[in-house]
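Page 47, continued from p. 46.
Same chain as before, 195 aa.
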Amino acid sequence: MIDARARAVLDRLERQDALEREQGLPRRQRLRQVTPDVGRLLHTLVLASRPRLVLEIGTSGGYSTVWLASAARAIGATVLALEIDSAKVELATPNLRQAGVHDVVNVTHVDAFKYLRGRREPIDFVFLDAEKEDYLPYLELIVPLLPVGGLLVADNLISHADELADFRQRAESHPDLSAMVIPVGRGELLAVKIR
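Result:
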């Protein structure tokens, strides 16, 4: 499902991410993307859950967006990628075009809190990879928008375990969710809306 154009962009972004981490660039300057196994997980989950809309909160260079969009294209879905940093929007946009997935992705420079507060229609699939201090307030806005069977995936639950402890506890104990953390990449929370 990942064609040669998308694979070339993914490979390039993986090399760039590794180099930036090796050089010790500050977090805000790095790509800050998911690991390749998380990309494959996201791709597989979209194919399995067959959402109409995939919402990504935190796009950065577009690495996870390529994985999400490749799966979305295969099932006739679309991806809405929200990014608050205009420089990251400018970085992601050509990557998505080069990967050949720009026609199924809308990258929007917007505050995701504002977007979620104004949204009324359900969102079938949400991938959350933003500033960690925002995860808990995002959760309270996302859960009401998920339909029964809707899926929330959140990154960094193991690598940022202390910072995300309250978020994890709330997600795993939420009466409307069935949630768990899996040891893929830097730790992914998978949460399904059950009622």
